[in-house]
């Protein structure tokens, strides 16, 4: 026969165990009530239809951006076309003007402007008018140092009596 061991009864220990058990029951009941009162928010898990909807929404905004880009492109193309037409007219006028223009040779001295630089507009016009044209622009100019004969006879090619002169040697006449 086996022996049975009995623990001596301790009323303080039994009361403590009973209090701990009751506290554990009360704590779990309070925890269960708190969970029921405020359930945690459920995280949204998109499904297939939600993903398709998001894709169409992104596609729609992309198409709206493309549409405005195409509209701007159409506007810019219209502006460029109008500008190109005006440039073509201007170029056609210039080409017809060139067909009647000729480069002629001559030798006409340029006047000196108030700032000391040569002014060859009058010289180019003079050359062109002498050849039967209405007006002209200088194409080629020559600058030379002009000295009196006594400078050259003295064996020099420059001096205080010398000065620079500019001549129009070719002009584009119209």
Summarize the structure.
This protein is of the alpha+beta class and 174 residues long. It is built from four helices and five strands. Strands 1-5-4 form a three-stranded antiparallel beta sheet.
Structure explained in plain terms:
With 174 residues, the protein is an alpha+beta fold. The chain folds into two domains: 50-99; 102-173, no CATH class. It contains four helices and five strands; from the N terminus they run ααβββαβαβ. It has helices at residues 11-37, 48-99, 121-130, 149-153; strands at 102-109, 111-112, 118-119, 136-146, 163-173. The radius of gyration is 53 Å and the shape is elongated. The mean pLDDT is 75.
Please outline the helices and strands.
Elements (H helix, E strand, L loop, with lengths): L10 H27 L10 H52 L2 E8 L1 E2 L5 E2 L1 H10 L5 E11 L2 H5 L9 E11 L1
Antiparallel strand pairs: 1-5, 2-3, 4-5
Could you name the key traits of this structure?
174 residues; alpha+beta; 3-stranded antiparallel beta sheet; two-stranded antiparallel ribbon
- Note the overall shape: elongated
Q: How many angstroms does the end-to-end distance come to?
A: 145 Å
Overall mean pLDDT stands at: 75
Instruction: State the low-pLDDT regions, or none.
Output: none
């Amino acid at each position: 026969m086996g022996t049975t061991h009995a623990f001596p009864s301790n009323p303080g220990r039994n009361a403590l165990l009973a209090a701990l058990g009751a506290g554990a029951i009360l704590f779990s009941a309070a925890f269960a009530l708190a969970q029921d009162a405020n359930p945690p928010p459920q995280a949204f898990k998109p499904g297939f239809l939600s993903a398709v909807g998001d894709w169409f929404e992104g596609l729609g905004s992309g198409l709206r951006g493309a549409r405005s880009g195409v509209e701007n492109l159409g506007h810019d193309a219209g502006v460029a076309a109008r500008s190109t037409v005006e440039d073509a007219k201007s170029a056609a006028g210039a080409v017809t003007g060139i067909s009647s223009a000729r480069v002629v040779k001559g030798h006409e001295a340029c006047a000196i402007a108030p700032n000391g630089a040569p002014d060859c507009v009058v010289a180019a016009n003079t050359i062109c008018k002498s050849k039967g044209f209405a007006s002209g622009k200088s194409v080629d100019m020559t600058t030379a140092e002009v000295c009196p004969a006594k400078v050259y006879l003295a064996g020099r090619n420059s001096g205080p009596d010398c000065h620079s002169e500019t001549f129009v040697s070719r002009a584009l006449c119209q």
